[in-house]
Amino acid sequence: MTRPGWAAALAAPYAAWMLIAFAAPLGAVLLMSVQENPEPFAPLSWTPDWINYQEIAGDSFLRRVIGNTILLGAGVTIASAILAYPIALWLTRLPARWRPWGFALILVPLLTNVVVRSLGIILLLSPTGVVSGAIQALGFERPNLLFGWFAVGLALVQVFLPYMVLSLYDVLEAQEKRLTEAAQGLGAGPATTFLKVVLPLSLPGLRAGLVVVFLLSSTAYVSATLVGGRQVWVSAMVVFREGLDNLNFPLASAMATVMLGVAILVTLLIGRGISLAMPWAHGRKRRAPLLPVGLARVLHAAAEAVRPVLSPLLFAIGAALLVFPLLLVVVASVNDTPQATVAAFHGFTWRWYGLIFDNPRYLGDTWVSLQLAFATVLAGLLIALPAAFVLVRGAFPAKEALGAAFLLPLALPGIAVGLGMLRLLQWFTAVPAFLGILAVHVVLVAPFMLVFLRASVAGLDRTLEEAAQGLGATRRQVLGRVILPQLAPGIAVACILGFLISFGEVTVTAFLTTARLQTLPVRIYAEATFSLENTVNAISTLTILLTIALLLVLNRFVRLDRAWKR
Amino acid sequence: MSTTRFTRRAMIGAALATPAIWGTDAVAQIRRGDELTVGVWGGAQERILREFVSGPMEAQYGVRINYVLGGTVERRARAYAERGRPSFDVIYLNIFESRQAVRDGVTQAPTAEVPNFANLYPSARLGGYGVAYNPVTVVYDRRKVAAPMTSWRDFWREDLRGQVIWPSYPGAQGTAGLLMAAKVWGGSENNIDPAFTNIARLRPFAGIQASQDQLFTMFDQQIGAASVEFGSFTRMYAESRNPNIVIANPTEGQAIALNVACITVGTTKQALANEWVNRHLSPECQRAYAERIYYSPTIRNLELPAELAAKLIMGEQAVASLVDFDWDVVIRSQPRWASRFTREIAG
Questions:
Q1: Burial track A312-328 (b if 16+ CB lie within 10 A, e otherwise)
Q2: Is A359 on the interface with B (CB under 8 A)?
Q3: How far apart, in whole angstroms, are the C-alpha atoms of residue A229 and residue B208?
Q4: Do A526 and B66 touch (CB under 8 A)?
């Protein structure tokens, strides 16, 4: 693996796919961003003009939007990390047969329509809602939480928390349990064990989670539109407004390119920060302690003192945030009212389920979405797994840069990918419909899978491979009997997430839907632009049930844990 | 300068349209097995169209109708990207986008080739074939106002301070709100300043709404007292969920909004597209619109029960009372106004 030839061969499929299916829309966006004439039918100019970038740099409103978006992304990422640890640890301690249910619980927000989820946030934060009531009960003034940054942040934490939990799950699950026992045997309390053993060893997973959640939350715009009440402006909303409402592609593209630049920078910074925090991984010496020993001791004592309250509290908040939409969706799916986002219960009905099964188009679109998601995950896994090995085990100078380049599709807002594809529509429609959408979905999904797989590969126990080789195993045997079984939970997690992302994708797919190929989310989105009907909640409920079934089946064939470690 | 630009656009549009005229013979007939691709909204609209337009057409001619469902902005962006070589034969747009699309050579101007064109009201004959009036008006919660709202000026009443939910711009509701505010404060689409100055005076808002679903959730939660919204959907909401909501009929009139069927320039299925639009304008289909989703008919030859008609815009006089604007100016100003809106009103 240290030989460059091998590294190139393993990274090639991923790189090739990105070059074919992502470089084109990215190139279109970059080229559009340096066009001077904003008219929709202006001829393309090959001489770059920087006027759009100058406009962004000179506009205090746009600068503020970009700054606020970065802060929002950072806040959401940190909050997700804090809430995710207790949940991920809980998941690793869950008995194996209950684990599919635990996973399903965590995935609920990803399986729920964004409009419905937003309603949940509105209900939580409304002046008559639970949170306001609790704050008032504590003797404070009733706060105005709805339609602002707090509401948007909470909505984003809710939907991105699952990504953080799952990226931590695999590394925490792979951790040597005897280490924590040893720490406790040496007198460390639970909080100290967490801070000195569990947390440092989980940094590769944390890195994956931080990158994914930051990139997702800094490019998201639907939640900001729905619960921000237009008091909140994020960069992707500007891209949407300029690109679609105003048909000013050059300014929209320039804005997207700026976001891309910021995202790359932050990705590199996170990588660098985590790398500095784990010197042992690079054979470097342990750095000097940050705090004087006395102070550290006091802090550890303080951590031990607050842990019995803080840990369950964080777990409860995180779990409630994840489960709340489930309650909302299941109740709404049998609520006898035509609109999907109704707080009050108007009576019981099975009507919405009936409507789905009466309507062959829902089933047809679901079938399309399922096929697409399976094909996407398969292709994504085949290209991302070898690439993950290259990024972990390869030894070449530009490794970090290659890692960042491989994540580019995550950093470019989906809406910008859509705009780029619009420019290429003539060529796109020449490709068979399924293949075309598959190519784009893999671009959107494979980087996620890569992030997760990279953390899993980094957690592999190399000594086991060496032992197997020492005992005469061939390369293929090592791969099949040592590496893949160790990676199974990580692969399963990456596939589940990839599946759900593809199955739910609408931002880019909405531009690419043709008469022959329509996915379920695009149908739901098209209906939502008119009026979101309650069938959407019935569909969500069924999707959640389907996911639980899939997880139970998966659990029979692939272990979601590493039982042999205990 | 902008005149030159539009002339150039019009010429390009005309040039692109020419092959469609040459090819009239080849596309003038409906053949079995032909396929028509229609870009339209989902939900109740799709269901009505399947029942009254595509179902009967498929049965009668042995053709196939493909639906591409989606929102207006994506559909419009795609139609522009595919100008002259459309993958859609018919697309549905809003009033302010449809007229621009005709000038830009993306969609065709309406003609009498569609027989029901003759029955359309004049304001439904621009930028394509208007298939439904869906005017935007003042809506409010009767529990939260001191007196009924009868004018667009009532948003500035003392009892509504901090209670207004303003619609975000751009969008049909936001456009109507902005233009009506200009009108009642002595401005117009050519003099928009009074609108911005006076809407800014309404701050702080109880909220800014970006969609009807959002507004209805706010009404459910009793956040705010009044907003600007489609009368049709608000009436359905009021009747099914919240009887406290009133759909006002302001003295200055309701702001016109129109769903428009647009046949693309370059379609190879002209006759089939004409037939599609014609059926959409049939009394049966227009009646279903009115009965099921309170869309007001755009054709003159439709009689409805008095009780239903009272909830709609019916008849020459009522249609003429809808407040119309110079949509050329509106669409051309949109980027500037949108940018001003985020800076001065919301954000």
A1: eebbebbbebbebbbeb
A2: no
A3: 5
A4: no
DSSP for A268-332? Answer: HHHHHHHHHH-GGGGTPPPPPPSS-HHHHHHHHHHHHHHHHHHHHHHHHHHHHHHHHHHHHHHHH
Using a CB–CB cutoff of 8 Å, tell me whether A60 touches chain B. no
Task: Note the maximum CA span of chain B.
Answer: 64
Q: Inter-chain contact A518–B68, Cβ cutoff 8 Å? A: yes
Q: Which of B179, B90, B324, B340 is nearest to A241 (CA)?
A: B340
Q: Give me the residues of A, 319-338, that contact B with CB < 8 A.
A: 337-338
Both structure tokens of A182: 């040893």
* Per-residue tokens: B179: 């233009």
User: A141 in contact with B at a CB cutoff of 8 Å?
Assistant: no
Does the distance separating the beta carbons of A530 and B220 come in below 8 Å? no
Cβ distance A515 to B37 less than 8 Å, yes or no, reads: yes
* Maximum Cα–Cα distance across chain A: 73
> What is the C-alpha to C-alpha distance for residues B102 and A449, in angstroms, rounded to an integer?
45
The model carries a pTM of 0.85
For β-strands B226-230 and B164-167, DSSP reports them as: parallel
Write the CB contacts of B232 (distance below 8 Å, at least 6 apart in sequence): B134, B293, B294, B295, B296
pLDDT value at residue B8? 52
Point out the residues of chain B with pLDDT beneath 70. Answer: 1-28, 347
Beta carbons of A88 and A201 less than 8 angstroms apart: no
Alpha carbon dihedral B277, B278, B281, B287, in 10-degree steps, equals: -110
Residues of A in contact with B212 (CB under 8 A): 531
- Local structure of B22: helix, strand or coil: helix
DSSP string, B148-196: ---SGGGGGSGGGTTTEEEEPSSSHHHHHHHHHHHHHTT-BTTB-HHHH
| Most B CBs within 10 Å, among A241, A423, A508, A534, to test the B interface | A241
> Tokens in use for A306?
């607050």
Cβ–Cβ under 8 Å, residues A26 and A412: yes
Eight-class DSSP state of B228: E
* C-alpha neighbours within 13 Å on the C-beta side of residue A428: 27
Which of B325, B180, B158, B342 is closest to B258 using CA atoms?
B325
Cβ neighbours of A500 (radius 10 Å)? 20
Does residue A525 sit at the B interface (CB-CB below 8 Å)?
yes
Integer-rounded Cα radius of gyration of chain A: 24
- Confidence band of A496 (pLDDT split at 50, 70, 90): confident
How far is Cα B119 from Cα B125, in angstroms, rounded to an integer?
10
For tokens 């009021």, name the residue.
Answer: B238
Dump pLDDT digits (tens) for A170-203.
Answer: 889 888 888 888 998 998 888 888 988 899 989 9
Q: Cα angle at B338 between B333 and B343, to 5 degrees?
A: 130
Identify the helix (H) or strand (E) that includes residue B200: helix B193-201
Express as a percent the part of chain A with pLDDT over 70. 95
Contacts with A181 (C-beta within 8 Å, 6 or more apart), sequence order: none
Of all residues in chain A, what percent carry a pLDDT higher than 90? 33
Say if strands B35-40 and B64-69 run parallel, antiparallel, or are unpaired: parallel
Q: Which residues contact A139 (CB under 8 A, 6 or more apart)?
A: none
Dist. CA A319–CA A106, nearest whole Å = 8
Q: Please tell me whether residue A333 adopts helix, strand or coil conformation.
A: helix
Q: What residues of chain A, 421 to 450, have a C-beta less than 8 Å from chain B?
A: 422-423, 425-426, 429
In a 13 Å sphere around the CA of A212, the CA atoms on its Cβ side amount to 35
**AA letter at A273:** G
Give the closest-approach CA distance of B208 to chain A in angstroms.
5
